Amino acid sequence: MKFPFRVALMLVAAAVPAVGIAHHSAAAFDRSKPIVVAGTMKKFQWANPHTWIDLTVPDGKGGTQNWRLEGPSVSILARNGWKKDSIRPGEKIRLLVAPNRDGSNGGEFLTVKKADGSVLKFGIV
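Request: output the structure for the sequence above.
Response:
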C-alpha cells in the first residue's frame, strides 16, 4: 500500500508542535537563590537536549554527596566557547548553581570556575 505524500506531510506538521510542548521549563530550579557548590567533577555529559555535570561534593562531615547538575544544550555552550573537554573527570571545580526547589542535591549549573581561575559561563549570568 502506498502512503500518500500529503498524509505524511500532515503527520509531520502535526508532530512538530508536540516536540516544543514536550520540553520542560526551568521551574524545578530556584534561580532567585543561587548557591556555590564545589567538588570534584566525575562526569561531564556533552549531549543534547541538555548537558550534565556529575559532581562529588564534600558533605562537611568527612563524607561526600553526589550532585547532578543540568546545563543548556551543546549548541548554547559551544556558542559560548565551551568544548566537550572544557572540564575533565577528576578536576576540582566551583559552580554557581540554581538549586533544585525540592532541596535534593542538584540543580542547574550557571557558571563553572576551574582551579586555574578561568570561568566558563553561557549567558544566564
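The chain is about 20% helix and 35% strand.
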